[in-house]
Protein backbone atom coordinates (compact mmCIF):
# COMPACT_ATOMS: atom_id res chain seq x y z
CA UNK A 1 0.00 0.00 0.00
CA UNK A 2 1.47 3.35 -1.02
CA UNK A 3 0.33 6.92 -0.43
CA UNK A 4 1.10 9.57 -3.04
CA UNK A 5 2.35 12.97 -1.93
CA UNK A 6 -0.44 15.57 -1.83
CA UNK A 7 -3.43 13.20 -1.84
CA UNK A 8 -6.17 12.52 0.69
CA UNK A 9 -5.78 8.84 1.45
CA UNK A 10 -8.69 7.32 3.39
CA UNK A 11 -8.54 4.17 5.51
CA UNK A 12 -12.04 2.73 5.89
CA UNK A 13 -13.44 -0.39 7.47
CA UNK A 14 -15.49 -1.67 10.40
CA UNK A 15 -14.41 -1.23 14.03
CA UNK A 16 -11.37 -3.35 14.87
CA UNK A 17 -10.15 -3.57 11.28
CA UNK A 18 -6.78 -1.94 12.03
CA UNK A 19 -7.35 1.63 10.83
CA UNK A 20 -6.11 3.46 13.95
CA UNK A 21 -3.30 0.93 14.41
CA UNK A 22 -2.16 1.72 10.86
CA UNK A 23 -1.99 5.45 11.71
CA UNK A 24 0.06 4.69 14.81
CA UNK A 25 2.47 2.60 12.73
CA UNK A 26 2.85 5.49 10.26
CA UNK A 27 3.62 7.76 13.23
CA UNK A 28 6.09 5.27 14.70
CA UNK A 29 4.02 4.67 17.86
CA UNK A 30 3.48 0.98 17.00
CA UNK A 31 5.86 -1.44 15.32
CA UNK A 32 4.40 -3.45 12.41
CA UNK A 33 4.14 -7.18 13.04
CA UNK A 34 5.25 -7.77 9.44
CA UNK A 35 6.76 -5.61 6.72
CA UNK A 36 7.93 -2.03 7.31
CA UNK A 37 6.74 1.55 7.03
CA UNK A 38 8.61 3.83 4.64
CA UNK A 39 8.45 7.62 4.85
CA UNK A 40 9.86 9.46 1.81
CA UNK A 41 11.50 6.22 0.72
CA UNK A 42 13.28 5.54 4.01
CA UNK A 43 12.39 3.09 6.76
CA UNK A 44 11.12 4.68 9.97
CA UNK A 45 14.01 2.95 11.75
CA UNK A 46 16.37 5.37 9.97
CA UNK A 47 14.64 8.46 11.41
CA UNK A 48 14.83 10.29 14.69
CA UNK A 49 11.19 9.53 15.54
CA UNK A 50 10.65 12.65 17.63
CA UNK A 51 11.79 14.93 14.79
CA UNK A 52 9.86 12.89 12.24
CA UNK A 53 6.66 13.26 14.29
CA UNK A 54 7.10 17.03 14.24
CA UNK A 55 6.72 16.68 10.47
CA UNK A 56 3.38 14.87 10.92
CA UNK A 57 0.32 16.62 12.29
CA UNK A 58 -2.14 14.45 14.24
CA UNK A 59 -5.87 15.12 14.70
CA UNK A 60 -7.61 12.77 17.12
CA UNK A 61 -11.22 11.71 17.54
CA UNK A 62 -11.13 12.82 21.20
CA UNK A 63 -9.85 16.31 20.15
CA UNK A 64 -7.33 16.20 23.05
CA UNK A 65 -6.67 19.90 23.55
CA UNK A 66 -4.73 20.63 26.74
CA UNK A 67 -7.47 21.80 29.14
CA UNK A 68 -5.20 24.09 31.17
CA UNK A 69 -3.93 25.97 28.09
CA UNK A 70 -5.56 28.68 26.01
CA UNK A 71 -6.34 28.17 22.33
CA UNK A 72 -3.19 30.12 21.44
CA UNK A 73 -1.00 28.07 23.78
CA UNK A 74 -2.44 24.79 22.45
CA UNK A 75 -1.68 25.78 18.86
CA UNK A 76 1.87 26.95 19.62
CA UNK A 77 3.08 23.79 21.40
CA UNK A 78 5.02 22.30 18.48
CA UNK A 79 6.31 25.62 17.02
CA UNK A 80 7.66 26.47 20.48
CA UNK A 81 9.42 23.09 20.66
CA UNK A 82 10.88 23.81 17.22
CA UNK A 83 12.31 27.08 18.52
CA UNK A 84 10.13 29.49 16.53
CA UNK A 85 10.22 33.11 17.66
CA UNK A 86 7.10 34.41 19.44
CA UNK A 87 6.02 36.72 16.60
CA UNK A 88 6.35 33.92 14.04
CA UNK A 89 4.31 31.55 16.25
CA UNK A 90 1.56 34.09 16.85
CA UNK A 91 1.36 35.09 13.18
CA UNK A 92 1.08 31.47 12.01
CA UNK A 93 -1.58 30.68 14.64
CA UNK A 94 -3.68 33.75 13.79
CA UNK A 95 -3.47 33.07 10.05
CA UNK A 96 -4.72 29.51 10.46
CA UNK A 97 -7.46 30.45 12.92
CA UNK A 98 -8.79 32.79 10.24
CA UNK A 99 -8.61 30.02 7.64
CA UNK A 100 -10.76 27.72 9.78
CA UNK A 101 -13.33 30.45 10.46
CA UNK A 102 -12.33 31.41 14.02
CA UNK A 103 -11.61 35.10 14.65
CA UNK A 104 -8.17 35.21 16.34
CA UNK A 105 -9.11 38.22 18.49
CA UNK A 106 -12.14 36.36 19.85
CA UNK A 107 -10.68 32.87 20.20
CA UNK A 108 -6.93 32.96 20.89
CA UNK A 109 -7.27 33.52 24.64
CA UNK A 110 -10.23 31.22 25.26
CA UNK A 111 -9.93 27.95 27.18
CA UNK A 112 -10.97 24.67 25.46
CA UNK A 113 -14.00 24.21 27.74
CA UNK A 114 -15.39 27.50 26.44
CA UNK A 115 -15.62 26.09 22.89
CA UNK A 116 -18.18 23.86 21.19
CA UNK A 117 -17.10 20.43 19.94
CA UNK A 118 -16.85 21.73 16.37
CA UNK A 119 -14.77 24.74 17.47
CA UNK A 120 -12.44 22.52 19.49
CA UNK A 121 -11.88 20.29 16.48
CA UNK A 122 -11.12 23.34 14.31
CA UNK A 123 -8.47 24.32 16.85
CA UNK A 124 -7.18 20.73 16.75
CA UNK A 125 -6.82 21.01 12.96
CA UNK A 126 -4.96 24.32 13.34
CA UNK A 127 -2.62 22.77 15.90
CA UNK A 128 -1.88 19.91 13.47
CA UNK A 129 -1.18 22.32 10.60
CA UNK A 130 0.68 25.18 12.27
CA UNK A 131 4.23 23.79 11.95
CA UNK A 132 3.75 23.13 8.21
CA UNK A 133 3.98 19.32 8.37
CA UNK A 134 4.18 17.31 5.17
CA UNK A 135 1.64 14.77 6.43
CA UNK A 136 -1.55 15.13 8.48
CA UNK A 137 -2.94 12.04 10.23
CA UNK A 138 -6.66 12.29 11.07
CA UNK A 139 -8.19 9.54 13.22
CA UNK A 140 -12.00 9.66 12.89
CA UNK A 141 -11.85 13.38 13.77
CA UNK A 142 -15.54 14.14 13.20
CA UNK A 143 -17.24 10.99 14.49
CA UNK A 144 -18.37 12.59 17.78
CA UNK A 145 -19.82 15.71 16.14
CA UNK A 146 -23.36 16.51 15.06
CA UNK A 147 -24.16 16.09 11.32
CA UNK A 148 -24.03 19.84 10.59
CA UNK A 149 -20.61 20.29 12.23
CA UNK A 150 -19.37 17.11 10.56
CA UNK A 151 -20.35 18.32 7.08
CA UNK A 152 -18.86 21.77 7.73
CA UNK A 153 -15.52 20.29 8.84
CA UNK A 154 -15.41 17.90 5.89
CA UNK A 155 -15.71 20.93 3.62
CA UNK A 156 -12.99 22.66 5.65
CA UNK A 157 -10.60 19.72 5.16
CA UNK A 158 -11.22 19.73 1.40
CA UNK A 159 -10.68 23.49 1.25
CA UNK A 160 -7.46 23.43 3.30
CA UNK A 161 -6.14 20.50 1.28
CA UNK A 162 -6.81 22.32 -1.98
CA UNK A 163 -5.08 25.46 -0.69
CA UNK A 164 -2.12 23.95 1.19
CA UNK A 165 -1.57 20.70 -0.73
CA UNK A 166 -0.46 18.57 2.22
CA UNK A 167 -0.81 14.79 2.31
CA UNK A 168 -3.69 13.63 4.52
CA UNK A 169 -4.22 10.11 5.86
CA UNK A 170 -7.82 10.04 7.09
CA UNK A 171 -9.47 7.24 9.10
CA UNK A 172 -13.23 6.70 9.09
CA UNK A 173 -15.80 3.92 9.27
CA UNK A 174 -18.33 5.97 7.29
CA UNK A 175 -18.34 4.96 3.63
CA UNK A 176 -19.98 8.21 2.49
CA UNK A 177 -17.30 10.25 4.25
CA UNK A 178 -14.63 8.13 2.58
CA UNK A 179 -16.19 8.68 -0.84
CA UNK A 180 -16.56 12.41 -0.27
CA UNK A 181 -13.01 13.06 0.93
CA UNK A 182 -10.80 10.38 -0.57
CA UNK A 183 -8.61 10.66 -3.62
CA UNK A 184 -7.82 7.04 -2.86
CA UNK A 185 -9.48 4.63 -0.41
CA UNK A 186 -8.06 1.57 1.33
CA UNK A 187 -10.67 -0.90 2.62
CA UNK A 188 -9.51 -2.88 5.66
CA UNK A 189 -10.84 -5.96 7.42
CA UNK A 190 -9.38 -7.74 10.46
CA UNK A 191 -6.00 -6.03 10.12
CA UNK A 192 -5.60 -6.75 6.41
CA UNK A 193 -5.90 -4.62 3.30
CA UNK A 194 -8.78 -5.88 1.17
CA UNK A 195 -8.77 -3.35 -1.68
CA UNK A 196 -7.10 -0.02 -2.41
CA UNK A 197 -8.36 2.12 -5.29
CA UNK A 198 -9.96 5.38 -6.39
CA UNK A 199 -13.55 5.83 -5.11
CA UNK A 200 -15.19 5.38 -8.50
CA UNK A 201 -13.23 2.16 -9.09
CA UNK A 202 -14.20 0.76 -5.69
CA UNK A 203 -17.86 1.40 -6.44
CA UNK A 204 -17.73 0.05 -9.98
CA UNK A 205 -15.38 -2.89 -9.39
CA UNK A 206 -15.45 -4.14 -5.77
CA UNK A 207 -12.88 -6.89 -5.27
CA UNK A 208 -15.12 -9.20 -3.27
CA UNK A 209 -18.44 -9.49 -1.45
CA UNK A 210 -17.12 -7.69 1.65
CA UNK A 211 -16.21 -4.54 -0.31
CA UNK A 212 -19.39 -4.85 -2.35
CA UNK A 213 -21.58 -5.00 0.76
CA UNK A 214 -19.61 -2.32 2.63
CA UNK A 215 -20.30 0.21 -0.12
CA UNK A 216 -23.59 -1.31 -1.24
CA UNK A 217 -25.96 1.59 -0.50
CA UNK A 218 -23.52 4.11 -1.91
CA UNK A 219 -22.82 1.98 -4.99
CA UNK A 220 -26.53 1.60 -5.74
CA UNK A 221 -27.05 5.35 -5.42
CA UNK A 222 -24.19 5.97 -7.85
CA UNK A 223 -26.12 4.01 -10.47
CA UNK A 224 -28.70 6.82 -10.48
CA UNK A 225 -28.51 9.70 -12.94
CA UNK A 226 -28.29 13.48 -12.71
CA UNK A 227 -32.08 13.56 -13.07
CA UNK A 228 -32.47 11.97 -9.61
CA UNK A 229 -30.25 14.64 -8.04
CA UNK A 230 -32.34 17.37 -9.67
CA UNK A 231 -35.58 15.72 -8.51
CA UNK A 232 -34.17 15.45 -4.98
CA UNK A 233 -33.31 19.17 -5.11
CA UNK A 234 -29.63 18.45 -4.32
CA UNK A 235 -28.15 21.03 -6.65
CA UNK A 236 -27.56 24.78 -6.96
CA UNK A 237 -30.08 26.62 -9.11
CA UNK A 238 -27.49 28.76 -10.86
CA UNK A 239 -28.55 29.27 -14.46
CA UNK A 240 -25.50 31.22 -15.56
CA UNK A 241 -23.07 28.98 -17.45
CA UNK A 242 -19.74 28.62 -15.65
CA UNK A 243 -16.40 27.60 -17.10
CA UNK A 244 -17.00 23.99 -16.04
CA UNK A 245 -17.83 20.74 -17.90
CA UNK A 246 -21.45 20.12 -18.94
CA UNK A 247 -23.56 17.08 -18.05
CA UNK A 248 -27.11 16.11 -18.98
CA UNK A 249 -30.07 14.73 -17.04
CA UNK A 250 -29.34 11.15 -18.13
CA UNK A 251 -25.63 11.30 -17.20
CA UNK A 252 -24.84 8.58 -14.57
CA UNK A 253 -23.72 9.89 -11.18
CA UNK A 254 -20.60 7.74 -11.31
CA UNK A 255 -19.55 9.58 -14.48
CA UNK A 256 -20.31 12.94 -12.81
CA UNK A 257 -18.19 11.98 -9.80
CA UNK A 258 -15.23 11.10 -12.04
CA UNK A 259 -15.50 14.57 -13.64
CA UNK A 260 -15.65 16.22 -10.19
CA UNK A 261 -12.30 14.69 -9.25
CA UNK A 262 -10.70 17.32 -11.48
CA UNK A 263 -13.35 20.06 -11.43
CA UNK A 264 -15.11 21.97 -8.64
CA UNK A 265 -18.54 21.69 -10.26
CA UNK A 266 -20.41 20.68 -13.42
CA UNK A 267 -23.12 22.52 -15.35
CA UNK A 268 -26.41 20.64 -15.71
CA UNK A 269 -27.97 21.48 -19.03
CA UNK A 270 -31.14 20.52 -20.85
CA UNK A 271 -31.86 21.58 -24.44
CA UNK A 272 -28.67 23.67 -24.39
CA UNK A 273 -29.93 25.67 -21.37
CA UNK A 274 -28.16 25.52 -17.97
CA UNK A 275 -30.48 24.36 -15.17
CA UNK A 276 -27.94 24.64 -12.39
CA UNK A 277 -24.69 23.14 -11.14
CA UNK A 278 -23.68 20.08 -9.12
CA UNK A 279 -20.69 19.81 -6.76
CA UNK A 280 -19.12 16.93 -4.86
CA UNK A 281 -21.00 18.12 -1.77
CA UNK A 282 -24.32 17.89 -3.63
CA UNK A 283 -23.62 14.25 -4.49
CA UNK A 284 -22.68 13.54 -0.87
CA UNK A 285 -25.96 15.05 0.36
CA UNK A 286 -27.89 13.01 -2.21
CA UNK A 287 -26.14 9.78 -1.16
CA UNK A 288 -26.83 10.48 2.52
CA UNK A 289 -30.51 11.19 1.89
CA UNK A 290 -30.84 8.07 -0.27
CA UNK A 291 -29.33 5.93 2.45
CA UNK A 292 -31.59 7.42 5.14
CA UNK A 293 -34.65 6.93 2.93
CA UNK A 294 -33.81 3.24 2.40
CA UNK A 295 -33.23 2.78 6.13
CA UNK A 296 -36.61 4.34 6.95
CA UNK A 297 -38.35 2.07 4.43
CA UNK A 298 -36.68 -1.02 5.96
CA UNK A 299 -37.78 0.04 9.47
CA UNK A 300 -41.46 0.39 8.51
Which structural traits does this protein have?
alpha/beta, CBS domain Like, Rossmann fold, 6-stranded mixed β-sheet, 300 residues, globular
Give a nutshell description of this structure.
The chain has 300 residues and is an alpha/beta fold. It contains 15 helices and eleven strands. A hairpin with a 2-residue loop joins strand 7 and strand 8.
Describe the overall structure.
- The mean pLDDT is 88.
- The protein has helices spanning 19-26, 49-54, 71-75, 77-81, 86-99, 104-107, 117-129, 147-164, 175-181, 199-204, 209-214, 216-222, 226-231, 253-260, 280-299, and strands at residues 8-12, 38-39, 42-43, 56-59, 135-139, 167-172, 184-189, 192-197, 246-247, 265-270, 273-279.
- The chain is globular and about 60 Å long.
- The protein contains 15 helices and 11 strands.
- It folds into 2 domains: 8-220, Rossmann fold (3-Layer(aba) Sandwich); 224-298, Alpha-Beta Complex (CBS domain Like).
- The strands form 3 sheets. It has a 6-stranded mixed beta sheet, sandwiched between helices.
Strand order of the largest sheet: 4-5-6-1-7-8
> Radius of gyration over alpha carbons?
21 Å
Major sheet: size, sense and barrel closure? 6 strands, mixed
- Secondary-structure-derived class: alpha/beta
Number of strand segments: 11
Assign the CATH class of the largest domain: Alpha Beta
Can you tell me the CATH architecture of the largest domain? 3-Layer(aba) Sandwich
* Number of separate helices: 15
Strand content: 15-25%
Task: Estimate percent helicity.
Answer: 40-55%
Mean pLDDT: 88
> In angstroms, what separates the terminal alpha carbons?
42 Å
CATH homologous superfamily heading of the largest domain: P-loop containing nucleotide triphosphate hydrolases
Strand-and-helix sequence, N→C?
EHEEHEHHHHHEHEHEEHHHHEHEEH
In the predicted model, the low-confidence regions spanning at least 5 consecutive residues are none
Shape: globular
InterPro entries: AAA+_ATPase, ABC_transporter-like_ATP-bd, ABC_transporter-like_CS, P-loop_NTPase
Domain ABC transporter: 1-215
EC number: 7.6.2.9
Pfam families: ABC_tran
